[in-house]
Amino acid sequence: MIENKTPKLLGLILISLNLLGDLSGDPGEVIAVKLNQGEAVSSHLIIEKEGIRYAMIALPFDKQGKSIKFNNRNILINKKNFGESRITIENTSMVNLSSEDSLRAFKESQLIKKALENYSTEFKSNLSFIIPVEGVISSRYGKKRYINESPRSPHLALDIAAVTGTEIVAPERGKVILIGDFFYSGKYLILDHGHGLLSSYSHLSKINVSVNQFIEQGEKLGEIGATGRVTGPHLHWSVYLNNTRINPESIIKEKFLENLLLRNVMMSKSN
Which of 7, 51, 179, 264 has the least C-beta neighbours within 10 A? Predict the structure, then answer.
């Protein structure tokens, strides 16, 4: 189901103040929190500019309307209606899984979970992501999903439809840490961009990289396909920050980091 004729890449980072003066933003977004001198932070991507350190904080989708804590700060996550997506899969064995397929899918999910938790701290992203494939956005982040009219987990990724064989490139420098051929995801890989920032690529027809290989931005990862549980050829692109799935469209805006830090400065002046 196609929603837009062309992917208008507006990576919006909406950082604002609520009535109590707390930080706030939309689910799936990233905000920059200015750190005090000597403030200790663990397990977060830290960006330093002009001698000032900023922690990159992901806002979880499932905490809408609630606040999360970062050190001594409250961060309110706004409520947002992302719409819905209804999909029909004619092969019902891919929807109502057999015990064998259920066990396989569970084991694969644990393998993916473990890979996402074991990221490197030896290199760091500069948050200058590009879109990994040219195509049509067929499903955006955050949509409620219904498969064969049955409610499923929300769609916390960006789907980009294109012809089978279309080249997929690395949106940012990274290391390949997992490759597999999985029940749901089909031909699949994960890129580690360092310090808790990772991205994954599902339903490929061909993978052109190998585990432990370092890939530069723009280098070929593989090709669009329709492997796994799909209704047509597309890339299912997920981005994770500290085990939180963030909105891929929010990080591919030109001058993303510069604007993110600028908003923090403007917000601090108004507080």
Answer: 51
